[in-house]
Amino acid sequence: MCLIALAWQAHPVYSLALVANRDEFHARPSLPAGFWPDHPEVLGGRDLEAGGTWLGITRQKRFAAITNYRDPSQFEQKRRSRGELPREFLTGNMVPLPWLESLKPRLADYNDFNLLVGDGNCLFCLESRTATIIPLQPGIYGLSNHLLDTPWPKVSAAKKGLSALLEDPPDNLASLSARMMALLSSPDPYPDVLLPHTGIPLDRERLISAAFIRDARYGTRSTSVLLCTADGRTWFSERRFDPQGETAGECGIML
Q1: Which of 143, 149, 205, 247 is most exposed, with minimal Cβ within 10 Å?
Q2: What is the CATH number of domain 3-254?
Q3: Integer Cα distance of 119 and 99 in angstroms
Q4: Which helix (H) or strand (E) holds 102?
Q5: DSSP labels for 182-248?
Q6: Mutual orientation of helices 153-165 and 173-183 as an angle, nearest 10°?
Q7: What is the CA radius of gyration of the chain?
Q8: What are 235-247's pLDDT values in tens digits?
Q9: What is this structure's pTM?
């Protein structure tokens, strides 16, 4: 994922409300969200190039999502795929904090990332750049290609939009999901003066400053919503996009 906004234990009905955009090269093969034949308890998309995933949840409410940390000066092509990590957590049985601690000796095997993992009772963010594990307290959070809650314009806008939406959300899970997806649908870039400096050319920084990236080579491939309710329901939805930014398919699944 490249943009995530989430509310954790910040609403009386929704213990977790998360919306996320996956930005990726259109040529990189992947499967739509679904239950995995080799691990039928896992629901999520699959990267067919390296075998990992960017976001998923299990029937037991184990959850994981990952974003890359953008710093081209530190990127090494030979390192392992970061998508292995959500897959490892989702298909394992360790509780979140000990599992995250066990990753610390292996951080150098991967280019920098931010990893969210939880089990319905707790939620943590591992920032590999600082080797810091952050226990999330009740609140609204945003994550893109820097550290948790770094106030990039699209991160701040997504947090603000999610907070406002949850003040009076629709009762229907599918309707709430659709409105959450709309929060990350703007293709408009932000003014140059507001852009971060991450070591990429300005025209590229401008392009990917938008919540929804529309580009023939690299762009938003999907938007996902995860809703977990206090009474035990879990709703997962995904909308997929083609290189023109048009809807190419979607699903809504109640676990």
Answers
A1: 247
A2: 3.60.60.10
A3: 12
A4: helix 96-103
A5: HHT---PPPPGGG----SS-HHHHHHTTSSS---SSEEEEEEEEEEEETTS-EEEEEEEE-TTS-EE
A6: 160
A7: 17
A8: 999 999 999 999 9
A9: 0.97
